[in-house]
Design brief:
The protein is mostly helical and 273 residues long. It has a domain of 177 residues: Cytochrome Bc1 Complex, Chain C, CATH 1.20.810. It is 62% helix and 0% strand. Helix 4 packs antiparallel against helix 6, helix 6 packs antiparallel against helix 7 and helix 7 packs antiparallel against helix 10. It is elongated. The chain binds protoporphyrin IX containing FE. Protoporphyrin IX containing FE binds next to helix 4, helix 6, helix 7 and helix 10. Protoporphyrin IX containing FE (HEM) binds next to helix 4, helix 6, helix 7 and helix 10.
Length: 273
């Protein structure tokens, strides 16, 4: 065995710093963005940091975007987001339609015809809005069926189920109030029938019918009322309720599929054989 080295002769290596700190790059060299892509990337990062420094939302967003989901989460869990996307598409196409639509009994029908025949991409946007309404309704129903089958209405998510029921009613009301707006024979008479059905409801039925008609008879104000309900009242309510619905989803988490059994934890005082 050779003798151990003399402690005074042992060479202690100098603590090494990371290359970038030990030898920082000269200004205008490596760390500076060069290409357009790098500039865009850096610009995006600094813009987000600027906002975050003033709003401090990154902790919330990180918690919301990267929250854990239960084992077995599958495509059926995307139906709620699909319904939300359908609503957003309705909002965007609706804004463009509102730029040309005239909620006046004399001009309403002609303004819709003008959108379809003369406005650039008008027929496409109108068609997207019309068929999008059906898509949203179907998605909301299928999403409700998913939450029912997966037992997601049970404790502690009963309140979210109730908010969902109100969202379902609001979605149906959007379809009902929008149907009158083209103001052709079919939409007019279908609305007369719908409002009369509402009027037969117990206690509040007749008041509801009067509210929808803006009086005891159909008049020019009825169209304005339906337009206001369709454009402002219900979308506002849906947006607010959707926010609450999503807040509760983020807070409570989603329900695991019923066929996924929870992992068995070993009992603390169970003897191992
Ligand atoms: C505009 C309509 C609606 C939108 C945009 C919407 C959106 C969402 C989203 C994004 C989620 C989380 C992901 C998912 O589970 O799909 C969710 C969950 C949920 N929704 Fe909806 N929803 C709507 C209508 C409804 C309706 C009509 C009901 C039931 C009556 C409902 C009940 C629930 C419940 C109970 C959960 C929790 C699911 C779980 O814990 O697994 N929602 N919703």
């Amino acid at each position: 065995m050779p003798p151990p080295p003399n402690p005074t002769e042992i060479k202690v290596p100098k603590p090494s710093l990371p290359a970038s700190i030990a030898k920082p790059p000269k200004p205008g060299t490596t760390s500076e963005p060069k290409t357009v892509g790098e500039h865009a990337n850096k610009g995006g990062v600094s813009a987000v940091s600027w906002i975050d420094e003033r709003m401090g939302q990154s902790t919330f967003l990180r918690g919301f975007m990267f929250r854990k989901v239960p084992r077995g989460t599958n495509w059926f869990y995307t139906l709620g987001s699909a319904a939300m996307f359908a609503f957003l598409a309705q909002a965007v196409t609706g804004v463009f339609l509102a730029m040309y639509y005239d909620p006046d009994t004399v001009n309403a029908y002609e303004s819709v015809r003008h959108i379809n025949d003369n406005v650039f991409l008008g027929e496409l946007v109108h068609g997207m809005h019309k068929w999008g309404a059906t898509v949203m309704t179907v998605l909301v129903f299928v999403h409700m069926a998913r939450t029912f089958v997966f037992g997601a209405y049970k404790y502690p998510r009963e309140l979210n189920w109730v908010i969902g029921v109100v969202l379902l009613m609001m979605t149906m009301l959007m379809g009902f109030s929008g149907y009158l707006l083209p103001f052709d024979q079919r939409s007019f008479w279908a609305t007369v029938v719908g409002v009369n059905i509402n009027g037969t409801g117990p206690i509040i039925g007749p008041y509801l019918a009067d509210f929808l008609r803006a009086g005891t008879e159909f008049s020019a104000t009825t169209l304005a009322r339906f337009y206001a309900i369709h454009m402002l009242l219900i979308p506002g309510l849906i947006a607010a309720l959707m926010g609450l619905h999503l807040y509760l989803v983020a807070k409570l988490g989603t329900t695991a599929p019923p066929w996924v059994k929870p992992k068995k934890e070993p009992k603390a005082n169970q003897k191992r054989i």
